[in-house]
Each structure stands twice: as C-alpha cells, then as structure tokens.
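Q: Sequence in, structure out?
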Amino acid sequence: MKYCKVCKKLCFGESLPFDGCKHKLREIEELNEPVRLCIAGGTERALLTGMLRDANIPYVEENVQPQGVANEIVTGYDVKLSNISVVVPFSALPKASELLSTIETLQNEIDPHLDEINAEIKRLHEQKEAAQKMNPALRTTIKVITALAFLALVALAVFGTDALTGWIKGLFH
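A: Exactly. Output:
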C-alpha cells in the first residue's frame, strides 16, 4: 500500500498511479505514519473531530490547497474552512474509519479497503516485533563491530592527517 507523503492520501491498488497532487508515492513504513482520513468542513468536521477526541484517536487538521476564489463565490463557503484534511496515524485508521462511517454526509473512501489496511497494519506489527526480537548476542556483536569501525576511522583520520602534514613539511625543506 502506498501513499503520498505531501497530501497524505492513501492509494490503493486500483487507483495507482495517484494523479491527485502529482507527488511521488512511497510505501507506508511505520504504524504511526500520518494518513488522510477525509476532507471535511463545517459541522461534519466538528462532529468527526469530537468523535476522534472522545475515542482517544490522535488527529491533525490540515488546510487543503484552496480551489480558487471562484469556488468560494459560487458555493458561498470560505474555502479555507470548508477544505480541511483530517489526518490520523495509520494504525488508528480502521477505528477512525468506523467513526467516519457514522457521519452520513461525509464520504468514506477508506471503508472499502479495510481488509487491505488491516493486513498492512498486521504486517507492520510483525515487522516491528521481529526487529525487537534481535538475538542479544547478535546485538552485542553489532555494537562491538560498530565501535571497532569507529575507532579505525578515528585512527585513519589521525594518522592520515599526520602523514599529510609530514609530506607537506617535506616539500618545504
């Protein structure tokens, strides 16, 4: 599953390549990656954010690029207030989507893809657990090798600098 890091919109298999904001897509790598739940405004936004707050789901409201003054004149809405992107952590997306489904006036683009999202969350959990279960002996070995490599680099810098200054001094004698 990919998403746009700029607009934070998830892109599912059939919607690739994403042509919304024209930025490069990337894989979701972390459970707390911020992704867009929906774009809302007015009462729907207030209702949704209240429900997210009550459910202890962290969220951020971000302005969506305005669609122009003409849209504001035609619709009568302040574009800056009517186009707010509600962003939640990827791991909270299923629960947030469930809350979003209760608001009939908002479109839920996430709901049809919940199986795919849950599978990706499960994969990321397993990946995180595997990284945490590194063998202690292997972890110690990596630390020792890293420390030795650092010391070798410092020695190379010191002896290299010494050799270089000796060579430069030799040029002037």
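The longest helix spans residues 136-171.
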